Amino acid sequence: MTQSVEQPMVTDATPAGDAxxxxxxxxxxxxxxxxxxxxxxxxxxxxxxxxxIGSNGAGKTTTLKTVSGLVRPRNGxxxxxxxxxxxxxxHRLVRRGIGHAPEGRxxxxxxxVLENLQMGxxxxxxxxxxxxKDRVLGLFPRLAxxxxxxxxxxxxxxxxxxxxxxxxxxxxxxxLLDEPSxxxxxxxxxxxxxxxxxxxxxxxxxxxxxxxxxxxxTIANRGYVLQTGTIILADTSANLAANEQVRKAYLGEI
Length: 254
What we know:
- The chain is an alpha/beta fold.
- The chain folds into two domains: about 1-95 and about 175-185 and about 205-254, P-loop containing nucleotide triphosphate hydrolases (Rossmann fold, 3-Layer(aba) Sandwich), CATH 3.40.50; about 105-170, no CATH class.
- It contains ten helices and ten strands.
- It has helices at about 60-65, 90-95, 115-120, 125-140, 140-145, 155-170, 185-200, 215-220, 235-240, 245-250, and strands at about 20-30, 35-45, 50-55, 75-80, 85, 100, 175-180, 205-210, 220-225, 230-235.
- Strands 6-7-8-3-9-10 form a six-stranded mixed β-sheet, with helices on both faces.
- Helix 7 (about 185-200) links the parallel strand 7 (about 175-180) and strand 8 (about 205-210).
- It is globular and about 45 Å long.
- Residues about 5-15 have low confidence and may be disordered.
């Protein structure tokens, strides 16, 4: 969607504080000379689902990559679990408790479902891998049925389940989800969002990037609207869903 939201910043209903698991403060991020994020500040409290919505190229994926260490902020700070992680390598952030299911799934197509899950749990002990694997297969019965099947032979929905399950194998404190419903049928979209809600009910904190803004706002506690690398709105999901300009620009309403 290409429409812009011409509206000043709305103060978030949940201010930064001790309950924050993640906090970004005035973050600028670049790809070479191209600036992708401009002074982005946001927070995610423990136990929340927070969603980022916006058009393609707004900076949503870059925000997640900056949190997970794949992009280094040029200015500003990223604080996770009360520690500045702005300069911490991505593989070390996995051990600290950040799980990332990237856009496009990025599963290992030649490995089986079980082998993909084991790769996701590389930071855990053998006993922990077994425990987490059983929990993931309980969340995704379809994967349990296909545990010996190669990842590349799975359907799109099954691959998305595997990408989320693999991210869960490290037993993260914060789960980053990038476009989990992309390319899926409406029925599978509903299944994926039901599973995301269940993961959250079990105690997982989630930062969700999703083009399907209607679905994202349905399950999230709060949301931020990104436009050309800048947060232009921040509010509860209910208030964002009721905002006339958000409805026109991102919810497909005229």
